[in-house]
Amino acid sequence: MRLSKSFIKTLRDAPKDETARNGALLTRAGYIHKEMAGVYDYLPLGLRVIENIKGIIRGELNALGCQEVLMSALQNPEPWEKTGRFSDAEVDIWFKTEVASGGLLGLAPTHEEPITEMLKSYISSYKDLPLYVYQFQTKFRNELRAKSGILRGREFLMKDLYSFHASEEDLDKFYAEVEGAYARIFDRLGLGADTFETFASGGIFSKYSHEYQTFLPVGEDTVYYNEDKSAVLNKEVYNDEVLSDLGVAGQKFSETTAAEVGNIFKLKFKYSEPLGLKFGDENNEQKTVYMGCYGIGVSRVMGVIAEKFADDKGLVWPETVAPYKYYLVAIGDDAAKLADELYAGHEEEVLYDDRDVRPGEKFADAELMGIPYRIVISGKTLEQSAVEIADRATGESKLVGIEEVKNLLTK
Ligand code: ATP
Ligand code: MG
Questions:
Q1: For ligand 1, mutation pick of 237, 300, 301, 305 (most atoms within 8 Å of CB)
Q2: Ligand 2 centroid to 62 CA: how many Å?
Q3: For residue 296, which atom of ligand 1 is closest to its CA?
Q4: Mean of the pLDDT values across residues 212-228?
Q5: What gap in Å lies between CA 145 and CA 127, rounded to an integer?
Q6: Which residues does ligand 1 sit against, CB inside 6 Å?
Q7: DSSP category for residue 218
Q8: Distance 11 CA to ligand 1 centre (A)
Q9: Domain with CATH 3.30.930.10 in the chain
């Protein structure tokens, strides 16, 4: 992208009501625009980060044999009434809207009921199982506290995966495969070192569920971890009974704050039973389908990465999610000629700052936007038939020969 052709502008100041660092930085750097508390637009740079996060998740899930769909955001209350979850007493974060012909529709806070209902049309026999279906979908929740930037939206993007099985063993097996995929996903997102599978309250069927918690000063959750971090527990299950249950009683635990970036649940019959999702087994006996569900907060992950790596100059994206890999700056006419040449054909990896502004301003914006590598071409570097490449994360820079740069780009 040529910055001169883009409507993106960095801002000197964040909006006054933006108290969260991720929200302030992402706004100043031109990634998001705030509509109102907990509601954000994703601008060209921000959308590219979201798409990169989705790409990593999609790759790992497709490798497990998961199939991607896109379900509706407007929801029929009927299946929710069958599970009792349409009532405000059960779920108080619903946005509901009136239909012209009378009655209410829900704006999707999650999709367990609709997907269970939908799959009644497609699952009838053991031959249809197992089945793994996921989506990237906008969720709406009337969150009381929407003051954490994109960490807690009233509208946000979630990846939700649902699995359907003929037996509990099969559910357990797939659950373990998802645990493996989640570890790879958070590694590839750059969060692997600080993200831990965490024991949390399980709800109805299993004793525990698992959350994926990224240790983060501004995280809203409190977790406890032992010395080698082999056991991490959400505060809600941190008690003597659970510690002995997990075989870690007597170990030293420390407290920290964390952000929940994902979670996985064995639902068993929680939704399939009330909604009547059944299959015929080998003897054509009707059995209830076993289910699991697995979430990742895609937009929250973006906020967590922003918070985690930012420094006093701005954002610092891991290469895997950065909107562009290179930020290109030319100083002088000869340099601009080479820059044009380098840019041609590499519009997807190079953000070309060809604006008519001072180099200092370009350098500051490159840092604020957090693009991993800044390429500067100037009279000085050209004298050595080279360009300067600076690493945003380490601050180190080096001269690289022009031919070598061409090779870097064409890769
Ligand atoms: P939390 O305890 O943070 O409210 P949750 O338990 O309500 O999360 P789920 O319903 O399981 O979350 O949603 C799956 C994932 O979606 C969460 O792990 C989290 O990463 C993300 N998420 C949940 N609520 C929000 C929100 N309001 N804004 C952004 N992401 C969210
Ligand atoms: Mg919640």
A1: 300
A2: 27
A3: 15
A4: 97
A5: 45
A6: 110, 141, 143, 152-153, 156, 158, 260-263, 295, 297, 299-300
A7: T
A8: 29
A9: 7-309
- CATH number attached to the domain at 7-309: 3.30.930.10
Mean pLDDT of the chain: 96
Segment 339-365 mean pLDDT: 97
CATH number of 326-410: 3.40.50.800
DSSP string for 245-310: HTT-TTS-EEEEEEEEEEEEEEEETTTHHHHT-EEE-TT--EEEPEEEEEEEEHHHHHHHHHHHH-
Q: Is the pTM of this model over 0.85?
A: yes
pLDDT band at 63 (very low <50, low <70, confident <90, very high): very high
Residues of the chain with CATH 3.40.50.800: 326-410
Nearest ligand 1 atom to the CA of 261 is: 20
pLDDT at 205 over 70: no
Q: How confident is the model at residue 207 (pLDDT cuts 50, 70, 90)?
A: confident
- Specify the ligand 1 atom closest to the Cα of 301: 20
d(C-alpha 133, C-alpha 68), whole Å: 6
Q: In this structure, what token pair is assigned to residue 75?
A: 């929801």
What average pLDDT score do residues 295-318 get? 98
